[in-house]
Amino acid sequence: MSSTVAKAARRVTHELHGVVVSAGLMDKTVKVRVGGQKWNKIVNKWFADPKHYLVHDPNSSLRTGDVVSIAPGWPTSQHKRHYVKHIIAPFGDPIDKRPPVPTLEELIAERESKKEAKDERRTARRQEQHEKAVEEKQRRKAKLAKKQHTPIESTENSSAEQ
């Protein structure tokens, strides 16, 4: 069963091409510069206006200088919203000597398996908390019942003694 995020990621055909400007400083993350232009109406001229994206690289297979294709996906962290589709032109080591770049289907399958494992842990934890709460409630009821019986017996004993 696919999540709505996975379905949306499959539908996205938007693809950006850029150059890796920072790799290896963050685990499973690279910074990619994507070209762009901005019109300056005062000078009547286009100026370069590149954008930088933090991109999810799960196998750390990218190196600084690689030309890559990226696509928007789902939020992986606070600022990461894109993933690597494939390497267009490697810089340095050839692609054969690097860990493979996972496909979108592999990324979605991994994400869903992690989500299922998390849901199982959550239900187990909630079940355990529920059992503890029931046990604590029974213990309090028993303690309250014991407390209520003790003063009644002591008042009966004290009234019988008088």
From TrEMBL:
CDD domains: Ribosomal_uS17. GO terms for molecular function: structural constituent of ribosome. Residues 108-138 have a biased composition (Basic and acidic residues). The keyword Calcium does not apply. This is Uncharacterized protein. Belongs to the universal ribosomal protein uS17 family. It comes from Bionectria ochroleuca. Residues 151-162 have a biased composition (Polar residues). PANTHER family: 40S RIBOSOMAL PROTEIN S11 FAMILY MEMBER, SMALL RIBOSOMAL SUBUNIT PROTEIN US17M. GO terms for biological process: translation. Signal peptide: none annotated. Keywords: Ribonucleoprotein, Ribosomal protein. It comes from the Eukaryota. The keyword Ribosomal protein applies. Residues 108-162 are annotated as: Disordered. One of its GO terms (cellular component) is ribosome. Residues 139-149 have a biased composition (Basic residues).
